[in-house]
Amino acid sequence: MTKYGELHNFLEKFKPCAKFFIQVVIEYIEVNFLKQIMLFFISFLFVLPFAANARGEDIRWYSFDKGMEIARTHKKPAVVVFYADWCHWCQVMAKTTFKDTAIIRKMNTDYVAIKIDTQKNESITYKGTRYSPASFAQALGVEGLPTVFFLDKNGQIITRLGGYIRAATFLAILDYIKDECYLDKIAFADYVNGKKNCRGLKK
User: Where are the domains of the chain?
Assistant: First the structure.
């Protein structure tokens, strides 16, 4: 037998092994490819909420007149923030408290967020009277910035808070107002400490 014949016989004997080996490799590649796709989609679903905030998701702020119109239509309370560009603690609150993910979500879902720049020259209408931002702040008794007002869906003042408010405290206040604890005259401290329930709570 020639060397060519011997080589041909050897390759013929090796064919079944080669086919089996190729099949195993193909199956391995297919399984791992599917795994990679599944891991990609799982990672995508996990990262998506964080990515949304990372790309600049923020509180939806409105002017006073527009915001109160939305509050009345959707029967939501409003958060009204008086601020100015020169105000240091206004800037700190904007970069910390109002960038907190939980606060952004709650403000956009349960409230109508309103910002009033006391230095701007625009018209604000409240209870049939027209104001400038500065005169409106004066009419409401604003003594310093930032000052945050909480209004019910009809525009009635629930309470006001002056100065910088930390994220954890602000979040608790949002829950307190949403649960309408003020209507039951429940102290904020009692609510935070879990001593008393409010009409909106389901416990």
Answer: 1-57, 61-192
Instruction: Summarize the confidence of residues 72-98 as an average pLDDT.
Output: 97
Do 114 and 62 contact (CB within 8 A), yes or no?
Answer: yes
* DSSP summary character for residue 146: S
| Assigned token pair, 155 | 């525009």
In this prediction the pTM is: 0.71
Coil, helix or strand at residue 56? coil
What letter does residue 181 receive in the DSSP assignment?
G
Q: Would you give the DSSP letter of residue 196?
A: S
Pick the CATH number of 61-192 from 3.40.1190.20, 3.30.420.10, 3.40.30.10, 3.60.10.10: 3.40.30.10
Cβ of 98: how many Cβ atoms within 10 Å? 20
Residues 6+ apart with CB under 8 A from 1: 9
> Following DSSP, what letter does each residue of 74-131 receive, concatenated?
HT--EEEEEE-TT-HHHHHHHHTGGG-HHHHHHHHHH-EEEEEETTS---EEETTEEE
67: enclosing H helix or E strand: helix 64-74
Give pLDDT, residue 113.
98
Q: What is the dihedral of CA 160, 203, 71, 177, to 10 degrees?
A: 0
